[in-house]
Predict the structure of RING-type domain-containing protein.
Amino acid sequence: MSAASCLLTEDQFLCSICLDVFTDPVSTPCGHNFCKTCITQHWNINVPNQCPNCKEVFYTRPELRVNTFISEVAAQFRQSAQPKFIISSLEHGSKPAEVPCDVCTGTKLKALKSCLVCLASYCETHLEPHLTMSGLKRHQLIDPVENLEGRMCTKHDKLLELFCKKDLMCVCMLCTISDHVLHDVVHLKEEYEEKKAELGKTEAEIQQMIQKRQLKIQEIKHSVELSEEDADREIAEGVQVFTALKESVERNQAELIDTIKEMQRKTEKQAEGFIKELEQEISELKKRSTEVEQLSQSEDHFHFLQSFAFLNTALPTKDWTKVKVHPPIKGTVLDLVERELSKP
């Protein structure tokens, strides 16, 4: 086994999510491997049931089982390759997903430990004083983490390693005897496991909601199929109705044209009668205008006064202000169509 592991490279034993050697490795249906915790958390937080590497989406969450063979090989590789990891970090510096050393200048090497007292992370070289100097030996070292200041209590400068259930916040040990005394306080890991279980229930509820919506999609598709059948039937009936209507319109088209032309002839005849009457009145008015003009030039007082009474009398003319020609053509087509449609 050791001979075989020597033929494999470091990248083949690294989880693409945490960039560390596999822990409880599992395989997705698409053939990619991840730490079981990493892929589970990834699906809980990011796109559910999607491979982070090839982006393939699985309709249901795959059942993840630890690949014992890969797990054993990874464990042996971790033991045999640990010195090589340290050398690699010294040669190439820290990777983007790793915690860099806060003391290194230029190329930042991978940190091996973080100090809760100094609030700094150290590579193998800069960690040496904490392992050899008596004053620094008493400092609490933990696995390297980013944002150390954010993990420390701003009031007591202690690690936030507990969780207050009442105030829903991370607290330190000293907080439990001051601001959070008598509160229900548990370790972060315990709260993490509890919330993780709740998240699992949430995931199950989401999956149930997805299934319900998938069923609704099928129901909608079936409704569309039924609607399509109804639409075809309505179209056929509509074609039949409008075909009959078209035939009826064609039968009455000539009659409609004759009716409109006859109405137009009557209108023109009426208009001719009005014009003849108006021209007759105009002739009478012109004659009266000539007589009035002649009388106005007369200097015979007797004749003027005798004729004035007659000429000053209004001629018997017609009141044309309300006389108009309104051909009853507008709306004829609509009336004819309504009559046709009302026929049994």
